[in-house]
Amino acid sequence: MTQKISLTRYLVEQQRVDGRIPPQLRLLIEVVARACKRVSQAVNKGALGGVLGTAGSENVQGEVQKKLDIIANEVLIEANEWGGHLAAMASEEMDGIYVVPNRYPQGEYLLLFDPLDGSSNIDVNVSIGTIFSVLRKPAGDAGVEEKDFLQPGKCQVAAGYCVYGPQTTLVLTVGDGVAMFTLDREQGSFVLIEENVRIPADTKEFAINMSNMRHWDAPVRRYIDECLEGQDGPRGKNFNMRWIASMVADVHRILTRGGIFMYPWDKREPDKPGKLRLMYEANPMAWLVEQAGGAATNGHERILDIQPGKLHERVSVILGSKNEVERVTAYHRDAEARQPAA
Ligand code: AHG
Ligand code: MN
Ligand code: MN
Q: What is the DSSP string of 110-137?
């Protein structure tokens, strides 16, 4: 009988092999996974648990908060604040950083999360998730401030998400490839289902909110127009479209069978670089995608190289199958080259 490998065992082995992850980071990931199990339970109860609907408040980004946005945020904070592995946390649902209260020991890590991604899908019983990113607190500082979080995505030491769909699946990288674990509800533990997730370099599937087409910039329009022309167009093949409207579920599909996901800058809010948030949506997803052999850019540069200027910074996102992401990025370069010099 083949033995099932639990998340705990996987992490212990990661710790043993060349000390790939230190014990504190292993603890942190386990605690995040435990919190995700609790969020999963709340999600599963739905109306029976009284968790659906809006909370009647707004977050720092001016978005209406759903009850589950707040519940998931509280679950993650409560689970993570006392273990001694963290110095502070930051979340989509909190204006500023949450410093670990001084009644608990302070650790050396910083945790960022989108507690509930895909809020518009909560009440309609469609896949949603939790996205997380882990940074090391810069050495030398006694306290912890917001500026300690402002590190580019390439500095992440762990990143992942948990998707609450027909199955609850946790996807993780610590910089050594991407592993997937599905929650075994009878055992109450995450079980390894795939250790070396790879995204095919080519794809015939794209994910973008087509209703924004009239607001897009020329390079994105060019790319999608060419896909839509199908077999008779310049790409010489037919494309399929999927848009779940939960980044976590769209990225999960891409990690499973390839594809390209785009939430580009558009003219609706031209002063914002994009809709999605760099530090707790784009960065963890970009690292997972790169670790699986894919690529992630904002059309101009690698997402993981972007130096954040603020906690809730937004970014344009193009990620997934490498050759397609490179094509869209090249279309941006072409458009720039054609711009008359200022
Ligand atoms: P969140 O629920 O955390 O605010 O994020 C929602 C994001 C992302 O998950 C998704 O890709 C996108 O918003 C959906 O946007 P549209 O409403 O434009 O489809
Ligand atoms: Mn989100
Ligand atoms: Mn969210």
A: EEEEEEEE-GGGGGGT--EEEEEEEEEP
